[in-house]
Design goal:
The protein is of the alpha/beta class. The protein has 13 helices and eleven strands. The termini are close together.
Length: 338
């Protein structure tokens, strides 16, 4: 997560055309279309943009009524493209042209699930990395060979263009975009109202259909180990120590852990430490060395190194961008960046 950029993105454009998925429309609307200012979330201006003002039929007997034409994209801070019921549905040429112009202007564009196919039709993914539902990766490669398809990420960004894996990963991406622009507290408030996790660790490798190499007992054991680590973040943890707690050898523990979560024990632990540090930086005035101690980094230097690697910012700059004093207006300090 980079530091919050030059103005806060609150004008969100949902790009609609026949063939988009009702679920993705609902996700975008739930994240950016609900007034949660009473919980400290910014008031977003979400608009349903389309080339034609006529209602757009959605699967399941639903319909979507556009309230702005595509010209509204010129003033949008973020553009979000839903996935498709038929992933090879051609987008209208005016939509593709509008997306190209928006990308040229530097407007961040995010696509949920099969929305990557729409961005690929516009040429926005040529020579870039992208992700989609794991069951669609071969289809995306076949029809858009100039796209570098990443098979197992939940979501990723390349040159201010965001793509996500299937269904629930669209929620992950939307919350990440809120967290990037407005801080972890705003994303957490939205996630709580949606009764979902503010972020998930791992990759979609954990959801791909294949025989799992561990038993239910192993999964329960690993969940207990993760819970222990989360409640003892300030303590040093090694793979060997966690393996002992799980009653496994280090090699077996690491293998089962990655099969269950899609990531390694140490990467998972670093992600949790960073998330805990973000909350302390936003919510408290604790000195940076104390934040580092409480979250298990040990030293401010180590914490700073991990922030630079994973968030492209420093703890001090993160606090300056996202610390909000109650009773004081929040300063507009950014828009979404790569």
């Amino acid at each position: 997560m980079p530091p919050r950029p030059s103005f806060t993105p609150t004008r969100i454009a949902l790009v609609a055309f026949p063939g988009i998925r009702a679920f993705d429309v609902s996700v975008i609307t739930e994240v950016w279309g609900v007034d949660r200012t009473d919980r400290g979330v910014p008031l977003f201006d979400l608009r349903r943009t389309a080339a034609d003002p006529a209602p757009i039929p959605l699967r399941g007997g639903l319909s979507l009524s556009p309230d702005r034409n595509l010209a509204w994209l010129a003033g949008a801070d973020l553009i979000v493209v839903p996935g498709l019921d038929d992933h090879l549905t051609p987008a209208p040429e005016p939509v593709l042209d509008a997306l190209r112009r928006a990308h040229t202007r530097g407007t961040p564009i995010a696509a949920l699930c099969g929305g990557a196919f729409t961005l690929a039709q516009a040429g926005l993914l040529d020579g870039r990395q992208a992700v989609t539902h794991w069951n669609l990766t071969d289809l995306l490669r076949t029809h858009h060979p100039h796209v570098t398809v990443v098979p197992d990420a939940l979501f990723l960004q390349d040159d201010n263009v965001w793509t996500s894996a299937g269904t629930a990963a669209g929620i992950d991406l939307c919350l990440h975009l809120v967290r990037t622009a407005h801080g972890a507290e705003a994303a957490a408030a939205i996630a709580r109202s949606m009764v979902t996790a503010p972020f998930r660790t791992g990759t979609q490798a954990q959801f791909i259909e294949h025989p799992t190499p561990h038993t239910d007992r192993d999964a329960d054991t690993l969940a207990a180990v993760r819970a222990f680590a989360l409640t003892h973040l300030a303590e040093p943890h090694t793979v060997a120590d966690l393996a002992v707690r799980a009653g496994m050898s280090p090699r077996s523990f690491a293998r089962h852990f990655q099969a269950t979560t899609g990531t390694t024990p140490l990467r998972w632990l670093i992600t949790q430490r960073i998330a805990a540090a973000q909350k302390l930086l936003e919510r408290t005035d604790l000195p940076l060395p104390e934040v580092a101690r409480r979250t298990g980094f040990g030293s401010e230097i180590t914490m700073r190194q991990h922030f630079a690697t994973h968030l492209a910012t420093s703890p001090r700059d993160y606090r300056l961008a996202f610390r909000h004093t109650p009773g004081q207006p929040e300063v507009d300090t950014g828009r979404l960046h790569p």
